[in-house]
What does this fold into?
Amino acid sequence: MTLDPIARFRRFSRAVTSEVGALDHSFLGRGRPLGSARVLNAIGHGRGDIAAIRDYLGLDSGLMSRLLRGLEEEHLIETRPDAADARRRVVALTGKGRAEFAAYEALSNNRAEALLARHPRPEALLDAMDLVASALGRDRFTFETVDPRSDAARHGLARYYVELDRRFDGGFEVGRSADPDAMDMIAPRGSFIVVMSDGLPIGCVGLKGTDKGYAEIKRLWIAPSARGLGLARRLMDAAEAAARQLGIATLRLDTNKALTEAIALYRKTGWTEIDRFNDDPYPDFFFEKRL
Amino acid sequence: MTLDPIARFRRFSRAVTSEVGALDHSFLGRGRPLGSARVLNAIGHGRGDIAAIRDYLGLDSGLMSRLLRGLEEEHLIETRPDAADARRRVVALTGKGRAEFAAYEALSNNRAEALLARHPRPEALLDAMDLVASALGRDRFTFETVDPRSDAARHGLARYYVELDRRFDGGFEVGRSADPDAMDMIAPRGSFIVVMSDGLPIGCVGLKGTDKGYAEIKRLWIAPSARGLGLARRLMDAAEAAARQLGIATLRLDTNKALTEAIALYRKTGWTEIDRFNDDPYPDFFFEKRL
DNA sequence: CATAACACCTGACTTTAGTCAGATAATTTT
DNA sequence: AAAATTATCTGACTAAAGTCAGGTGTTATG
It folds into this structure.
């Protein structure tokens, strides 16, 4: 009988292998070998640096060259030397190439759409997929400083507010709290950092500058699918590093009693509890850390 | 920004593609081309019919033949004509082949184990994987009549009891209920049917024969990862078909008020509510259906 | 019982993927 | 300014995968 964890894992593995295989096969339907199709798709997804594509697809430089020549002969791509370093070449899609790329995208998208559409609980399926993708891709998280008004940041914040509303006694309305001004979370006053996993923002934290001799940590959030991976701590480290670089010596934060994991993290990482320092209605705990 | 459902799906797809690719690559470490390794693994997993392997792996018959010859030359497999139809050949691992297969299995298992071990919530990860695997494999569910004492059946029943205990007011103890005798759920008195998805039992139902002029439907269960796919209904249909074949004309069942989806299903599929017909402490509703 | 259908095999290919040793030209280092 | 390093390309390979047209022996069918 095959019910132990490893058997379940491998059942999953078989299921996705055949799904992946089927997609590869459908890609061949456009009459181009898979290698060329993969290069075309890498270029279409914005990888313009030949070395980056080679690295991403794990190709030999000779093979890569030949695949590029093939795509060039089909008039799907154009290469030219890099302006900054003429040894390198950059590559971009032609109009014809963009059309071909769009056709490949449509194949992938249709597959995804069909599978989601026929599932009774697409949200649950997507949550499961996020969890698996974060688990498989955990070596590939990137920390990026972004504008708090960017899409990635807004996505994180929106999820964060939803979660607060769910967890706080009596819910949470962002309007009743002191919503930080975006300019306070952009250098040189502050910073806003997101963790990305292959294009999906799965966590964020804000460093909000004030004129009171300290900066505040705000909006620490990790997607449910990525919890327990130590990302919150790494985000906090990144925020502290940003603060040091901006010459900020003292950090403060406030938090609600419902956010127990966060409170435990603060206590473990050198924060000390202090008296209430604002009149925001939501927080129950107040912390300070000197850098 | 890439946050719509399709983008999330495709992020998942990329993550598992690179995982699958990495596993393929590790398979090459044993010095055998991937094609041969895949055939060897298919045989090791019990596929002894050449046509079945060819079909499963999508191989041309010529290519398949050559791969088999190669494995035969390595003394990993043995083929002989099928006793029933001498055109067909059946294939089996030799002792050396079993050792080699075990080595491949270890590669897969170690990979699975390592990934599960470093995850903070392996149970949540496995649940997510089950959900995804059921969604991807939904064309490949099989309904099998099994002995209620088999591993597959016992797995389903164990999960069923856990769920009842969670959902019933005051919990559920199997000992307090009239646990059906296994012989009553085996032909010719009754039947026990499981839904399998690629080796994993994800649902079950029992048809329990009695000496009172009717048979009872018992233990209808669907794994959380496979709900909403219409499997409960298909299981009930299968149970009814089994009853007809056994010459049973009347079916009864009892159920608890907490199992709302089941009750809705019974009402929708021709069952009529009747008076209590037993003194089991758990059920609140009683149904009958004439075939 | 002839013939069609079937399962598998063999030989003769082609295509794709991948490797490796230079060649070329640009950039960095000493 | 010479030497070393780097990024890409070309040519000459090999291995693997996949295709296709027969061929052999077996089984099903009219």
Q: What stands out?
A: Chain B touches chain A through 57 residues (CB under 8 Å). Residues 33-35, 59-60, 62-63, 81, 85-88 of chain B lie near DNA strand D (CB under 10 Å from a C1'). The domain at 140-290 of chain B is CATH 3.40.630.30 (Aminopeptidase).
